[in-house]
Design a protein that fits this description.
The protein is an alpha/beta fold. It is built from 16 helices and 18 strands. The radius of gyration is 25 Å and the shape is globular. Belongs to the aldehyde dehydrogenase family. This is Aldehyde dehydrogenase.
Length: about 450
């Protein structure tokens, strides 16, 4: 891969470090997205049957916001940050320099194939790196438009796109990149982490898991139903932070389910399979996997499917066993298991028995209930009285913990993800502390006084 050698040379020639280069590259990237916007929408429609509305709101518009925010603050982020020094370091100045990693690899998933390829790229550019993008082979039309757009905009010494499947990805991972950013499944994430360990390459892993939603008895039920339906069935549930299963307080279950069914009807009509703007399942393998889950409970809404077009209705299920497959695996589709509870402490204990989720959503108007859940459950991030909206702001870091990932990005956190915080102590020459040396008279005595 000769372009990788050229990227190393390009980076070490300091081409990517100047602020002007980074800002110009971000401008070029935004212009390229705008120029290709209609082609991006068309590609997403071909790959996933995404509507123009969903394509823009979840894949394109969010990138414009991110680029503008990063450009506005980048100069400040790049400045070395002065920090305090210890009393033992009299006369010295401590600074932290955000230092680019170098040549970076971005491996993108298929569920948001454009946004999740370009969002990390914004961080890589802002951090002063070069980048290689590996788009998902499961969304080939989007992969093609990413490659075309990048080739038309940047030299591959700076940013390159490498298409392919498992073999090509493994070949890339065999190279000693300076940083790897991966978005995808837990299983593949483990492989990426193992490969990265061979070269001691730092990584960010954006994974997934079973993200719970909780509707407490004091929730605003109609609004909760609408926001849960939207968060769950956007992209046909193929969202890493979609509510994976739902706990509803037994006192409000019937009323809430009525509102939830109404919300699904309002958002997707009474015939979602004929709705031209309803997203399809990405391929036959995932479609067949999802169909198996329909046997794990009692379907109270939806459940119909169209194999030819890989469409599954928004589906609600009750009477689900906790040890069933639908409650053990990340669903990643338009199926929502619903359980009831009477005591918030019990379900918090249940959630804590499982791997740490990427997201958690709590619907409650009570402050102490909100605090109890936040303080007692470990998860990547989430919302109070909403779903998935937390990932759409550049002011909050987005990322997982434990099985749901490591590291975070968006806004300044993207810049931090793609830079090493290099510590520098600038020592004075006009003064030399004598007790630091082993031959100082009573040196240890004074050191103990200073350092106790």
């Amino acid at each position: 891969m000769k372009f990788l050698t050229r990227q190393y040379d390009f980076f070490h020639a300091n081409e990517t470090r100047p602020l002007e280069h980074r800002l110009k590259a971000l401008d070029l990237l935004k212009t390229a997205i705008k120029r290709n916007e209609s082609d991006i929408v068309e590609a997403l429609s071909k790959d996933l049957n995404k509507s123009e509305f969903e394509a823009y709101t979840t894949e394109i518009g969010i990138l414009y916001t991110e680029i503008d925010y990063v450009k506005k603050h980048l100069k400040k982020w790049m400045k070395p940050k002065r920090v305090k020094t210890a009393i033992t370091h009299i006369g010295s100045v401590g600074k932290i320099y955000p230092d680019p990693y170098g040549v970076t690899l971005i491996i993108a998933p298929w569920n948001y194939p454009f946004q999740l390829a370009i969002a990390p790229l914004i961080g890589a550019i802002a951090g002063g790196n070069t980048a290689v993008i590996k788009p998902s082979e499961l969304t080939p039309h989007t992969a093609d438009i990413i490659e075309t757009m990048i080739e038309q905009t940047f030299i591959d010494d700076f940013i390159a796109v490498k298409q392919g499947a498992v073999e090509e990805t493994q070949a890339l991972l065999d190279h000693p990149f300076d940083y790897i950013f991966f978005t995808g499944s837990v299983g593949v994430g483990k492989i990426v982490m193992e490969k990265a360990s061979h070269n001691l390459t730092p990584i960010t892993l954006e994974l997934g898991g079973k993200s719970p939603a909780i509707v407490h008895e004091d929730a605003s039920l109609k609004l909760a139903a609408k926001r849960i339906a939207w968060g769950k069935f956007t992209n046909a549930g193929q969202t890493c932070v979609a509510p994976d299963y739902l706990y509803v307080h037994e006192h409000v279950k019937d009323t809430f389910l009525t509102h939830l069914k109404e919300a699904i009807y309002e958002l997707y009509t009474d015939d979602p399979m004929s709705n031209a703007e309803y997203t399809h399942i990405v391929n036959d393998k995932h479609f067949d996997r999802l169909l198996q889950y329909l046997n794990d409970g009692h379907v109270i809404q939806g459940g119909e499917y169209d194999r030819d077009n890989r469409v599954i209705e928004p589906t609600l299920m009750t009477d689900v066993q906790l040890d069933s497959a639908v409650m053990e695996d990340e669903i990643f589709g338009p199926i929502l298991p619903i359980l009831t509870y009477s005591d918030i402490h019990t379900i918090v204990d249940d959630i804590k028995k499982h791997p740490k989720p990427l997201a958690l959503y709590l619907f409650s108007e009570t402050e102490h209930i909100q605090s109890y859940v936040i303080d007692n459950v470990q998860f990547g991030g989430g919302c109070i009285n909403d779903t998935i909206f937390h990932l759409a702001t550049p002011h909050l870091p987005f990322g997982g913990v434990g099985h749901s990932g490591m590291g975070s990005y968006h806004g300044q956190y993207s810049f931090k993800a793609f830079t090493h915080q290099k510590s520098i102590l600038k020592q004075a020459t006009w003064f030399d502390l004598p007790i630091r040396y082993p031959n100082a008279k009573n040196g240890l005595k004074w050191i103990k006084k200073l350092m106790k």
